[in-house]
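Folded chain entry —
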Amino acid sequence: METTRQQKISRLLQQEMGNIFQQETKSIFGSSMITVTEVRISPDLSVAKVWVSIFPIGGAKKEDVMTAIQDNTSDLRRRLGLRVGKQLRIIPQLSFFLDDSLDYIQNIEKLLKQ
């Protein structure tokens, strides 16, 4: 069960990470659309698990974009620290995971149409 503080910080991190992906990292990840779908933070606020949904544009593959995100985790954490450094004492370590719920929904719809 998450505390109120954890929920507030999760929402803050989700919003700021979404802004970082939309505004600041186009040069790193190309034109792929990256959406932060969920953030869960540990009780001690030191580790954040970030689920991202990737819509590849221009021939990029989801796996390639996910690898680029994981390779640039330290840069993303630094950018996050610049944005929320006044609100959080410790910037959490980031772990990124691919959210495949949209693919699952599309697969279910495809099966239902048959």
